[in-house]
Amino acid sequence: MMRLSASRLTIERGGRTILRNLDFAVDSGEMLIVTGRNGAGKSTLLRALAGLLPLASGALALSPSSEDSIAEQTHYIGHADALKNSLTAAENLEFFAALLDLGRGGLEPYAALDSFGLRHVADLPAAYLSAGQKRRAALAKLLVARRPIWLLDEPTTALDTASQALILSVIGAHLAAGGLVVASTHARLDLPARELQLGAAA
Ligand SMILES: Nc1ncnc2c1ncn2[C@@H]1O[C@H](COP(=O)(O)OP(=O)(O)OP(=O)(O)O)[C@@H](O)[C@H]1O
Predict the structure, then answer these.
(1) So what's the ipTM on this one?
(2) What are the ABC transporter domain coordinates in residue numbering (predicted)?
């Protein structure tokens, strides 16, 4: 059982307070969906949870406590797909897996791509992939190293119906295995989840 909790989180960007005194908790097996209008702070919150933005005040905690930081236990998939265009899809995943540590039961790059229906484009440079294929290749990173916390910014953007079903089943399996997911979205994700609605930005 793992719990990620945020207490009185306040986050500023460019001198403006984007999120103020936010409280929430997510447990193993749960998904929290972050909603709100454009600019409400959904991406800001995910980036802060990933350790990519400092907190102005408040705290994030993971229990039970661990020697690994929250960031080390987290996969963050932002809405820029962060693929290297000159590397193939498979090489991108190899590169990413090497950055994280292997040996934690992740899938081989080709198997991860296969899970997202990308086996046939695994050896193409990422630059040649369609928008939806790039999105799926980025999401395949979730499978090359096991990490309990998944932070997903608009995971279904650019995905057709079949690919949306694929990512939802991958998320469902992660939750069933005791993982924990925080996802921002404007779409409806057809999975049980709690909603955190962000209000008007300051
Ligand atoms: N690097 C930055 N410096 C200053 N302000 C920023 C920066 N990045 C984002 N912001 C501001 O922070 C606010 C929240 O942006 P954020 O991207 O988190 O919103 P969002 O809810 O994810 O929006 P969307 O639905 O459009 O993706 C916006 O007003 C945005 O202009």
Answers:
(1) 0.95
(2) 2-201
